[in-house]
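Review form for a predicted model. The reviewer records the input and the model, then writes brief findings.
Reviewer: anonymous (R2)
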Amino acid sequence: MLAAHVGIAATDHYGRVTFAGVPVPGATVTAIQQQQQRVTVTDQQGFYRFANIAEGAWTLRIEMLGFATLSQGVTIGAETPPRVWELTLLPFEEITRGLPPSVPEPKEALRASSSPPSGFQRAQVITSVGAGAIANDPAAADADRNQSAADGFLINGSVNNGAASPFAQLAAFGNNRRGARSLYNGGLGVLLGNSAWDARPFSFTSQQTAKPSYSDVQILGSFAGPLKIPGVLENGPTLFLGYQRTVDHSATTQSALMPTPLERAGNFSQTPDRSGRPLQIVDPVTGLPFAGNMIPASRISPQAASLLHYYPLPNVDAGGQYNYQTPTLVTTHQDAVQSRFTKVLDGGRHQLFGNVAYQRTTTDTSNLFAFVDSSRVSGLDTTFNWSHRLSQFRSVRLRYQFTRLTTNVTPYFANRTNVSGDAGIGGNNQDPINWGPPRLIFSSGIAGVSTAQDAQNRNQTQAWGGESLWGRGRHNITFGGDIRRQQWNVFSQQDARGTLAFTGAATGSDLADFLLGVPHTSSIAFGNADKYLRAPAYDAYVTDDWRVNPVLTVNGGVRWEFEAPVTERLGRLVNLDVAPGFTAINPVVAAGHRDSLLRPDRRGVQPRVGLALRPVAGSSLVVRAGYGIYRNTSVYQPIALLLAQQPPLSNTLSVETSAAHPLTLANAFAMPSATANTFAVDPGLRVGYAHNWQVLVQRDLPASLTIAATYLGTKGSHLLQEFLPNTVPLGAVNPCSTCPEGFVYLTSNGHSNKHTGQIQLRRRLRNGLTAMVQYALSKATDDAGAFTGVRLDGAAIAQDWQHLEAEEGPSNFDQRHLLTAQLQYTTGVGVSGGGMLDGVRGTLFNGWTVTSQLTAGSGLPLTPVYLTSVAGTGVTGTIRPNVTSGVSDAVPSGLFINPSAYTAPTPGQWGNAGRNSVTGPRQFSFDAGLGRSFLWGDRLTLDWRINATNVLNRVTYANVNAIVLSPQFGLPTLANPMRKVQSTLRVRF
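Model under review:
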């Protein structure tokens, strides 16, 4: 994804949440980065996905009722492998005596679907409202127990075999242990990995590079039990303390196209064009070809010559597609401390509980230029809860939460080398923390220089909430609300060093344009570095869990959410007052610290209803259905950041070269129009929401099998769309030459649709074997390129601003086919499984557990791009090519897109290739593990396990070059990680 404006790359990030190797559905996964927050939930196989998420350092937090919250820093990039997160069950006292309350919504019938569309937040789910009340009310538990067997809401479908449930406790886990004699438990473990165990990263050329050397270490320890001090404190709170230290390495081999020694000297006599013929280099001054296709040394820009020193020389030969290859390494160091406490007061009528968690993550990321950018992320999360049981059927809960996240990003050249200044490039920020080269983009596929942007950000949230639970007959009613005060203190620039794009428009070669110092577009945004963003948020809800009769349960309720538009403490926000038809614009500065320049959208009412029915008495057949509306709760943060980076508060620029104002490397960021706004938003912006509905039919079969068929539908409304007003196709005459242009406008008129049908066959645990296979067929479409994130580059902006309906196409996360399978087998379970073996054979054979996970799916969609700027702007990546008529759909071997199927758009017309009209590489992963537990006496257990990701070492691709006319068009540019092996050893008591 190439950007000519802000230089923000994005990718899709996947992961999986498990417990003891079993998937955990319905877990809330939150991705936090500086001022941004993305939320989703895991599907029935424990998978989560963040579509089109910005690359960089994020903190992922996994939350699930009954399990300890897991939080860890992750560097997300196109090469980032899918992560597997292993949850830890909370101590039994915390599960039965009350957990930090989550926000209720219609329960299992709504949770039966996979995660809502990316960008929509789903409230955390508890198993049932009644269960939440019973957790704090032992008397109510006795009254409710007689109805629980008939309740249609069953954990994980119709799991009647507790041993097969992913929520069942393992032997010797927590308080479920043999011959328990101690009130204390804990453990100490170590996870080891080494580059010698891992497969060599995949190479796109016939030559292998040196394999990086590293060792992975993870140390963890935990201790839990009641706090007792003889003679001082006899009945203290129950405490849990945990510590985790992680050192992790992720190695990849990156291939790229670098300038050859001849090209560096201006000699293009050996450089072929796309057809293989010698490339013709034209002198932009005379319009005639250079003699011998050689640029005179005197014409080579000193700025270009200086930047060329940072380009390595080619080291491989791959037929012109790639000529450079090097290993890259991402190193992550993490320390995490967790503590929780629970204290019951007044005979169980009062209870205090909470947690304090701290985490610090350091990530060093190298790229193919050997630039190493560093990030330091530290987070504190503190929660305190108080619950009071008013009577057998009523209880009240109050809660307070404080979170603080600090992010420090240090680019490689910060306070080290002033690359732009030494090269003679002016106009960009020259502060030492922002030293470095401008971001370079080449249309032919030559590697572009880039490093991270400096950031020193601090985000803070305080939340107060309360709820009351009331049981009356067959009804369990919950109502409550929350208030949040959110702060995003941002000390960073949007694009301090600037971005330059070279397309070959001047000479016929983008590299020749670079050597002559004539970029085609220029963009930059810096100034107003310190931004203090503020926004309150409120919610209120009421739900009724109504057990109509032994075969029918209905859960209905309504939730209201309001997130105020973000303001700036000093009123430093700028929008555009747009005249009808975009005939004129006028900058508008916020009137004060309470002015967001946007009208608040208080229409956050979200009704939700779900039901579970057993239509046939005595049968295992269960029907579940649900409907709900889910609102986007994080729409304003990225908008406010862009509004804070506009003139007159900041220096912004997004232009293309012209005869009146020709761009050069020396003055590309010092244009007269450098004060023009580059972004504006509709002041009446609506907050998007999604209608979700689903129907599930499930039944038990012979041989411990369960089959379930599900239909899921989603319709999104008021989704974000971005376009460039008053722009025309290349070669067309602008009918309004005096109308303003060059800025991106954001509206909320988009929509989306997604339909999914899936079928699942599961074998409950029997004779040591449990397995699951699921197939899903889905289709997702939308016309909202900014649906998954507001950006100022071609990946999110519509091609034709007057025909936004032409953007209708497959969604970025549209995956038509997905097959997942899991298997777990434990030896020595059941008679037929070898449970009767004894002696040496039994000792050697029994107790081994084998797990495996298989995922196979079709590819994600891609958009073919004709890389040039939109006339009158500096934005590239929005123009699409024409589809060649009469060309076969057959794709040449080794490619994923047929180059012959696309040509440059017809002059005066927009390209007719559809958005996301190409399907990318198929996906495949197969992971496996082997482990065993060894008992040491009555109290100690030793667990050993070895896990391998991509155990077959199969090559799959994560990205494909979709830039038409590039020599690499249709070629894969990034491979997923190859096999990685890790071993775990843990002692528990």
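Findings: The two ends are 50 Å apart (CA to CA).
Further findings: The longest helix spans residues 138-148.
Recommendation: see findings above.
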